[in-house]
Amino acid sequence: MSGADQRRDKAAFLDSHNRRREFSAVEMTTAAPPPAARGSIFLGVDVGTGSARAGLFDDNGRLLGSASCPIQIWKDGDCVEQSSTDIWLAICTSVKAACSLANVSGDEVTSLGFSATCSLVAIDDEGEPVTVSWSGDPRRNVIVWMDHRAVKQADRINSSKSPVLEYCGGAVSPEMEPPKLLWVKENLQESWALAFRWMDLSDWLSYRATGDDTRSLCTIVCKWTYLGHAHMQQNNEIDSRDMEARGWDDDFWEEIGLGDLVDGHHAKIGRSVAFPGHALGSGLTPDAAKELGLVAGTPVGTSLIDAHAGGVGVMESVPVADFASEEVDEEAICHRMVLVCGTSTCHMAISKKKLFIPGVWGPFWSAMVPQYWLTEGGQSATGALIDYIIENHVASPLLANRAASRSISIFELLNEILETLKQEVGSPFLAALTTDIHILPDFHGNRSPIADPISKGMICGLTLDTSEKQLALLYLATLQGIAYGTRHIIEHCNAHGHKIDTLLACGGLSKNSLFIQEQADITGYAIVLPRENESVLLGAAILGAVASKKYPTVQDAMKALNAAGQVVYPSKDPKVKKYHDAKFRIFRDLYEQQLSQRSIMKDALS
């Protein structure tokens, strides 16, 4: 399909989407203070897997109002795709709705920051979409983060044993960008020839808003094998300018068959790099400002991946009682791990020294908090897995209807059913209801710490029971399986140099009290929840706040705008610990069984 063909229906596409979005935003808001009481107002925008969201925060980090708008997604086997045009329209809808709900005019917005999933965007030399789809659909120019089409390409790249792989846990994942780029080059040659820029989605958003093609250290270090520590000679965050990208390993790109991306000083993948929160260009362009309902020149900060924005939005959320000791112990932040829990879960920890941890992404220099090394563990399917378990059970429709009739979520209803079941069977504690059900949650592979993208989910203990109670037990076992995965990641990180002793959690799953309690009981650590529910949006807003010079550094802004809410403590009952220790052994054994079965079947077919 030619470039002209790819743009043929753009006008009709924009018209239809504008009509569809006119009243489509799902809105959430809090009461805004009177205009006279306002100081700075920071706008954060986040693009997740299923929606674009916008939130406005005051200079105390309090949410004034937020809104969201769904985005389209196409799924076909391992291929998962989106449209950057659709995403931008959803952002514009969300920003206008959030401003309306918070009673904030566009000229009151101090700054803007973006975060997004680590999805791959292709555009041509005019900034128009280039298809990445087998279908040839010109709208579908985004390979979504969870797309696993490039497993074979990832295997080939990992066989190179390039030194850059040491900085992503020893191996690239098919969710990273080099395997996806290689897949496009090998399978969609016309798109490969047309593409003028390949960008992480959050970098594309800031480029679309400002016209500045400076890439974030967060995106290209974490997902493109860029060696961020090459900037250590210019590591003064305050004086950071658009720096020539000096962290690309040209030999790596040549060796894996993507040497053409080195041309033009890496123009297609990033020739200019900056710390998160660096002020881009001259701020919002007039066109982008008009589309967003804001003012041209509004400062925009270099972006973050969504999970990393969650880390920035919550990592300094220290309970008030701990402030005194925090001021003395600057290393305290290195004892924390942030769980950013949504469709997937990312486990973010930072350190002053680089720690090489097999099977865990990183160490990434300045990829989240500037001048700290980031370790990034993760589970590729958590919220998505819980939804899958529930929605594919025969009792799900009836439960969903019951929950809707009471205006509660299906998770709240399942939590109630479990409490009732606990009383009925006389269980000593709720977790003990799953004595006979064990789940390995690798339904979309294992990201960390095993780093096995072909690992499969396993359920042990099924019967012919199709009741609501049986679904509730499967749901609980799934929550526990996910929490055992978190425990595995923490223990692995601590065994390789981290000293994690406190967890912080944000994202949609963190609003489920049972999910958080199981995480605390199974890991044995207290979990701090943020005061504000929208931590990812706050993290994005912090980037703009730094770009506006309201705060000198990202960490200064974090300390000013992060705030702790509830703290959830693990059970003190030794029986609970003993129970989970036993189930954790079974959890680990399930994967070993899978490896054995894989080997047996491979031998049978050899």
TrEMBL record:
Record key words, sorted: Kinase, Transferase
Residue ranges of every copy of the Carbohydrate kinase FGGY C-terminal domain listed in the record: 338-547
CDD domains named in the record: ASKHA_NBD_FGGY_D-RBK
Matching InterPro entries: ATPase_NBD, FGGY_C, FGGY_N, FGGY_RbtK-like
Entry GO CC: cytoplasm
One annotated GO molecular function: D-ribulokinase activity
Lineage: superkingdom: Eukaryota
Residue ranges constituting the Carbohydrate kinase FGGY N-terminal domain according to the UniProt record: 42-313
BP-aspect Gene Ontology terms: pentose metabolic process
Family (UniProt): Belongs to the FGGY kinase family.
UniProt cross-references to PANTHER family, sorted A to Z: FGGY CARBOHYDRATE KINASE DOMAIN-CONTAINING PROTEIN, RIBULOKINASE
Protein name (database record): FGGY carbohydrate kinase domain-containing protein
